[in-house]
């Protein structure tokens, strides 16, 4: 998924002849985050690791010196600003250009780059696997199942651009829940029909 961002990066133009997006693309809502959210998440991670800073250079220097084991453990505790269904906290973001002449990997969001047409055009295929999200099922706690059943609406993909609490959002949540779970309570016993 994230390696497909390579085809959007001007710094690697000409290095690839074709592309495959398997199990997602840079346009998935969980595959990219804006710079402000990325900075907030980095601050939150440093706080979880016992350090408090707001300056990006201080955060960078601290994280470069932190143990990879501690970072790996704490990154799953970083919460996201969006809905519960977003998933990953650390994903690619557009970089700010620097006055030092350093190269920027992603100068804008993937959607903006695609709209501009300023990317490497190569043959491209996309695919998915059956039971794609099965590996995530083991991470779902009983609290999450309760939250899903009590507030299914908060698990709708945020890229649907629905405002939680509106009639449209509530209708979409009811439709998705009925489609995948019928009149049953969502649980580990029937999640298979949701991830197929």
UniProtKB/TrEMBL annotation:
Gene3D superfamilies: alpha/beta hydrolase. GO terms for molecular function: carboxylic ester hydrolase activity. Pfam families: COesterase. Keywords: Glycoprotein, Hydrolase, Serine esterase. Residues 6-184 form the Carboxylesterase type B domain. InterPro entries: AB_hydrolase_fold, CarbesteraseB. PANTHER family: CARBOXYLIC ESTER HYDROLASE (PTHR43142:SF1). Belongs to the type-B carboxylesterase/lipase family. This is Carboxylesterase type B domain-containing protein. It comes from Timema poppense.
């Amino acid at each position: 998924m994230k390696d497909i961002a390579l085809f959007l990066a001007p710094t690697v133009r000409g290095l690839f002849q074709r592309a495959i997006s398997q199990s997602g693309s840079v346009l998935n809502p969980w595959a990219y985050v804006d710079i402000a959210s990325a900075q907030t998440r980095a601050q939150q991670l440093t706080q979880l690791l016992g350090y408090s800073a707001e300056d990006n250079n201080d955060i960078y220097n601290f994280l470069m010196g932190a143990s990879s084991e501690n970072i790996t453990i704490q990154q799953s505790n970083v919460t996201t600003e969006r809905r519960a269904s977003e998933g990953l906290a650390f994903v690619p973001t557009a970089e700010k250009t620097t006055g030092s002449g350093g190269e920027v990997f992603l100068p804008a969001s993937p959607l903006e780059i695609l709209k501009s047409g300023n990317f490497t055009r190569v043959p491209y295929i996309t695919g998915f696997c059956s039971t794609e999200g099965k590996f995530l099922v083991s991470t779902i706690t009983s609290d999450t199942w309760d939250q899903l059943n009590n507030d299914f609406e908060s698990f709708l993909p945020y890229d649907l651009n629905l405002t939680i609490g509106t009639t449209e959002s509530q209708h979409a949540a009811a439709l998705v829940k009925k489609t995948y779970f019928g009149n049953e309570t969502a649980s580990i016993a029937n999640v298979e029909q949701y991830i197929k």
